[in-house]
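Researcher: Here's my situation. A collaborator sent me these components and asked whether they could plausibly form a single complex. I don't have experimental data yet, so a predicted model of the whole assembly would be a useful starting point for our discussion.
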Amino acid sequence: MKTFKGRPVVPGKAKASALVSHGGFNTLASFQNALQFGDKTAKCGDQNNPDIYQQPMVDTALCLPQTIGSTTGGMVLYCAAAMERNPACMLFSKPIDSLAAAGAILADVWTDRNMPVIDNLGDEFLDYVKTGMTITVDEDGTVTVE
Amino acid sequence: MAIRLTAEQQAILDGKKGETMAKVMKTLVMYGEAFGATEMVPVTGEKGHLVTSFGLKVMNPVYDLMDQLIEAGALSSQKFSVDPKPLDKNVPANFLQKLIFNKFMYSKQASYDEQLRKMGLMNDNAYTCACYLDEINNTPKKGDVLSWAESSAVVFVNSVLGARCNRNSGIIELFGSIVGYVPKFGLLTDEGRKATWIVEVKTTSKPEAQVLGSAIGMKVMEDVPYIKGLTDFIGNELNDDAKAYLKDFGAATASNGAVGLYHIEGLTPEAVEQGEDIIAENPQVYVIDDAELKRVKDSYPCIWKDKNAKPKLCFIGCPHLSYAQLIQWTLDVENALKASGKSKVCIPTVFTTAPDVMDKFNKTEYAQRLKNTGVILSYICPLMYMNNPLCKSMPVITNSNKLRTYTTSRYYTSAEILEKITKGV
């Protein structure tokens, strides 16, 4: 077990199984199929991301460095939350990028979903965490990996 | 650190202009605070640009939000353009595709178009990702503060025009246009515009714009690169050719990575003004030679079921082609067909451009000449066209690295594409 401390961009509590993307997470490419074609498990559709391609993303603790790609990204994340196809929480090793922050904040202000978002967890966090590990997130940005 | 708001901004946040406007302001304030912004600054650009152009049935949360804004009178304070439409009856589609496009996928298109008009759309032609082209009448000035989205447009106006805009998400960009303020951080600040990478281009010939952009995007991610050596190939003047090259290059940096601003030594405005002073301390260095470009291009996966399938469709123009590119492609296709002894392209091919550019082009002799080659001219968004299960299994080729990234289309260089559509090899 190991504990990491980050900054809560959207504070909250969560406990979920880790899904780890070591490369940049392309929000549009990852979610577009899930949103369009009724995939309630939200399997990742990003062919360029071998870590999580075809892996279900719903209710996971999505661990990533940052998001990349189209500026529809935040809107896509907002829609995923409004349609209840979002991860349980999003855990960034680096400072959050503008698209992910927009999506996280839109989801927080304009939907009833609670999706804690923590950033600045550090490169060591992404080196340590593996897909399938259990993640616990606290309000103050503490992330426990076991 | 909390953002210091002016009395007017605080009043909006406190609900003096209604609950919906207060939530719009709250969203922008939270957004700014996530990046350490200390103030909200006025949007000084004349017009906005929105990324969301498609009436996708499953994106109901966005249309519900638009209704909520319109009903509350929270309209855009500036006119705006928007990304290309997802449908065009001129683009080849079989019966099943047309049924799915019109009756299922994009059944919200007409109602969303109406929402955009009510919100402040410039005009019914203002659907393009390349809204900064002269023909569209939405070209920002150097120093303008913008509230735009569309990754390829944001990186172009920041880098080539010297405007100031963050890589905003869809909806956030509209919120900035509604309240007329955006949080000041990132690419709106002098510090945020400094280059943290030096990219040295050491190729033996002019690098393919879309592969060079891809390589840089994948390497620097969201950072700002300062690129040396490129003017040896594209010159020191921001003419139509250089702008077209940088349009395609930038789109690849933004979609294969998350680049919102680049500087080209001796060419783009801030690099010309400030030289190497615009490079931050201790930059990282990335050297790009022929081998590196080949490595990057060879790394693109082909996810067609039959990797040797004959292409059924070819898209050229993601981002939308400029007027000069459209003419050049017309001449290139004509000449290549002549050389191969053919009169029509061998693969159904679609050139995409902005409606206003298309209108200009259609008034020239080139329009008929292009038609004679069998190429179809469209205002469609190829990316939206391909986002469905039928196109997913369709072998589509393109010279767009952005389209490759988001769809199952297969990337080829422009020269390779020209050979394929005119010789069928």
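Model: Some features of this prediction you could bring to your collaborator: The first strand of chain B starts at residue 40 and ends at 42. Chain B touches chain A through 46 residues (CB under 8 Å).
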